[in-house]
Design brief:
- This protein is mainly alpha-helical and 162 residues long.
- The chain has a single domain, classed as Winged helix-like DNA-binding domain superfamily/Winged helix DNA-binding domain (Arc Repressor Mutant, subunit A, Orthogonal Bundle).
- 54% of the residues lie in helices and 5% in strands.
- It has seven helices and two strands.
- The chain has a two-stranded antiparallel ribbon with strand order 1-2.
- A hairpin with a 5-residue loop joins strand 1 (55-58) and strand 2 (64-67).
- One of its GO terms (cellular component) is cytosol.
């Protein structure tokens, strides 16, 4: 399954927003700077996250983004759905009803076996994403990061957050 770059960018942005002190925010430009991303494209991902309630935003001088709920209440599936939408990755178009050996619509009483197999696989994938919270992902990162890198990040966040 291929997910867009927007999912990666949105998830990384959420991890940075989770590190913000309470009542602080980061602008879309600052988040784009942190990862050297195009700010206009990242802003679209942030807006999708805002519509999904994953982040909150404020306008004006010092405005920006912060998480909309605690990191332990945001799953990776929440982020994927915000960016990619809720539709399944595999969409059966019933091609078994086409061609010289086509099945009649009336004979298609059960779901297509191929669609069913892909549906089962996608459900396992979605369950794994639903089980992984942003908080648990950050805990893994902190456990694997060097203290120097964590200090660099904390300093940057302090400097850029308003």
């Amino acid at each position: 399954m291929k997910l867009s770059r927007g999912v990666e960018w949105a998830t990384h942005s959420c991890t940075v927003l989770a590190a913000l002190p309470e009542e602080r925010e980061l602008s879309a430009e600052a988040l784009a700077e942190f990862y050297e991303l195009p700010s206009a494209y990242l802003a679209k991902q942030l807006q999708a996250l805002r519509r999904a309630g994953i982040v909150q935003s404020s306008r004006g001088k010092g405005g920006g983004y912060r998480l909309g709920r605690p990191a332990n209440m945001i799953s990776l599936l929440d982020i994927v759905r915000a960016i990619e939408g809720p539709e399944p990755a595999f969409r059966c178009s019933e091609i078994r009803q086409n061609g010289p050996c086509a099945l009649k619509k009336a004979d298609c009483k059960r779901p297509c076996e191929i669609a069913a197999a892909f549906g089962k696989a996608e459900q396992v994938f979605r369950n794994a994403l639903a089980a992984q919270t942003l908080d648990s992902l950050i805990s893994e990162f902190v456990g694997n990061a060097s203290p120097a890198h964590l200090m660099d990040m904390a300093g940057w966040i302090r400097e850029k957050s308003g």
